[in-house]
Amino acid sequence: MATSIHETVLIGVRDGVIDKKKNTSYCTNKIGGQPDPLPVMAPRQPSCALCQRGLAQVVQVYCPLAASPYHRTINVFACISPQCSGKPESWIVLRSQCLEDDVKAKQDNKPTACTGSSMSRTDWCDGADDWGMDDEERVAESGAQKPNVCTDVSSRLQELCIDGDRQSVLQPTDAAVFQPLYVSVIEETDLDGFHDTGHENELLREYEEREGVTVREIRSCESGEAQEKYEKATAKHGDEVFTSFMKKICLCPEQVLRYSWAGSPLFITEPLSGVSQGAPSCDHCGSPRVFEFQLMPALVSSLSSVDTDTDVSLEFGTVLVYTCRKSCWKSGSTAPVEEFLVVQPDPDQKLFK
Fold it and tell me: What is the pLDDT of residue 192?
């Protein structure tokens, strides 16, 4: 599906490891680690619908919407059991919200962790300096230029609860934990010059060998030269959707997350007919769901266990997350809302290793 020229696409790339001594909050954008719940949320842990094992947090995204009065965090979890791998039932995406007044009441009117990011709800997109990176030191440490974007990826939703039918299997103690990493975010239009060209060239050469498309043809998509020639190039496996996916991300193969609220997803394989037309309506208010963000193949190699003696892995091509267009929320609720996701396998997972 083509991306509209009017869409703002934000790209997340992995940053430094989160120090275990450093406190994070629901405003922290991160890969892995323990979830950071909003202050009003009941601390419970989601479990796999297939094996009942505790789910590991894959990412936490702090993403308040423009002109909304709510703090808003989305957490994606997955089961690491080999028998559950790749099955959508082994994943879950949860949306949590609360008002600033609720946060203050819960914390005895102490400043919240997000105060420094501007608590004026109309400024979340227009005035935000980054995507939840509230520590200037992290920008300095990573060497990344400070982006100008409108959403976040958060941390520490410690043992989150599940909404609906799945509340009967809560608080398992066997959940794996992925190494927590910060996520740096930039706008896609600012990607030129940000990425590691050496790493890109390595990936592109591997692609050339596997798919029979020359590196020069792929690199031409960065400058816009020979675009028509590239688009006519056909991968060996004949998968035009995958080829288009690779062409789109060639400016930054390292991207682990792609955010575009109400935008257009990038499919890595031909989607099922129903998915290509959209997602099911919200279970709670009946409003349409819209695409919000997706996890990218490069995230796979960033997921490692905090326990060096434990070998954990998660395989996927891309995971598409769809959320309620109205971002509906019941006043006083302490349970997250389950949203909808689509898991697509990668036709050539080894390319991103």
Answer: 66
Give the pTM. Answer: 0.74
3, 264 contact by CB (below 8 A)? yes
* Number of other CB atoms surrounding residue 247 within 10 Å: 18
- Confidence class for position 240, pLDDT limits 50, 70, 90: confident
- Here the tokens at position 193 are 């010059």
Q: How is residue 79 written in tokens?
A: 């089961």
- Separation of alpha carbons 269 and 112, rounded Å: 42
Cross-strand bridge partners of residue 259: 10, 293
pLDDT at 167: 37
pLDDT tens-digit profile of 73-115?
A: 999 999 999 899 889 999 999 999 999 888 888 776 555 556 5
Give, for 247, the enclosing helix (H) or strand (E): helix 240-249
Classify residue 224 by burial, with Cβ atoms within 10 Å: 0-12, 13-18, 19+. Answer: exposed
Which residues does 156 contact at the CB level (< 8 Å), separation at least 6? 24, 25, 26, 28, 33, 34, 35, 36, 37, 60
Structure tokens, 329: 């929320």
**Amino acid found at 93:** V
Tell me how far apart the alpha carbons of residues 236 and 347 are, in angstroms, rounded to a whole number.
12
